[in-house]
Specification:
2 domains, alpha/beta, Rossmann fold, oxidoreductase activity, acting on the CH-OH group of donors, NAD or NADP as acceptor, NAD(P)-dependent dehydrogenase, short-chain alcohol dehydrogenase family
Length: 263
């Protein structure tokens, strides 16, 4: 097979994307649909799920709080029934968490960040891995970490802690699941254009006592390419890892960030 043909995921690939009604997750779901995959998405925002289904009639979807193990179990069961199995799990769901000095962070906000960003990954894995082991179509797991999973991130410690943990989870699972022909990788997005990043910049600017515009310029100065990335950039990397071209890529934490030098 030519290298060009290897770049396209196999038609009919069965894909589950978590936290996918908006943002990066929605872009990933859209990319897989355009590649003729069968796609199931979940999100805790029921109205956003309804809008996603209305926009993409071929999309399967369910509502779930990914920090709730019982709701995750129900989503996995529904996705398996709807898709007839599973080939790719994209563990994308996550939240920004609080911004502030570690001594000022509310314990409840810390726990919610860990539950949503890290525990949810385990909840989906424990139910999805047995289904992935039944796949003969180059099965894979793609976990969404962050550039904050390779760099220190002052005043964003709950978020950074979970994103570093995801990298450790991925590297360990790559060893564990390799003999089952399941590839496991993490994507580390950098500064992603969009409303979520706008909110992060505003909150960090407030914590540091500077303007949002000044904070935005500070973010850009930290990026070698001096630009933010887009959700489509992240979706493209996800498609690559799920394609035959990625069949020998596992245990990797791949940054898509324009080379963020420091945070």
């Amino acid at each position: 097979m030519s290298a060009l043909k290897l770049l396209k995921p196999a038609p009919g690939l069965r894909v589950l994307v978590t936290g996918a009604a908006t943002g990066i997750g929605a872009a990933i779901a859209q990319a897989f649909l355009e590649a003729d995959a069968a796609v199931y998405v979940c999100d805790m925002d029921a109205s956003a799920i309804d809008r996603a289904k209305a926009s993409h009639p071929r999309l399967y979807a369910g509502v779930a709080d990914v920090a709730n193990r019982e709701q995750v179990d129900a989503v996995i069961d529904d996705a398996r029934r709807s898709l007839g199995g599973l080939d790719i799990l994209v563990n994308n769901a996550g939240i920004a968490g609080p911004t502030g000095a570690v001594e000022s962070i509310d314990p409840g906000e810390w726990e919610r960040t860990v539950a949503t960003n890290l525990n949810s990954q385990y909840y989906f894995l424990r139910k999805a891995v047995p289904v992935l082991k039944e796949s003969s179509d180059c099965p894979g797991i793609i976990a969404m970490s962050s550039v904050a999973g390779r760099l220190g991130y002052g005043f964003r410690t709950p978020y950074a802690a979970t994103k570093w943990a995801i990298v450790g989870l991925v590297k360990s699972l790559a060893v564990e699941l390799g003999p089952d022909n399941i590839r496991v990788n993490a994507i580390l997005p950098g500064v992603v254009e969009g409303e979520r990043m706008d909110r992060v910049i505003a909150a960090r600017a407030e914590s540091l006592g500077i303007t949002a515009d000044a904070m935005r310029e500070e973010y850009l100065r930290k990026i070698s390419l001096r630009r933010m990335v887009t959700v489509e950039d992240i979706a493209a990397m996800t498609l690559f890892l799920a394609s035959p071209a990625g069949r020998n890529i596992s245990g990797q934490a791949i940054s898509v960030d324009g080379n963020v030098e420091y945070l």
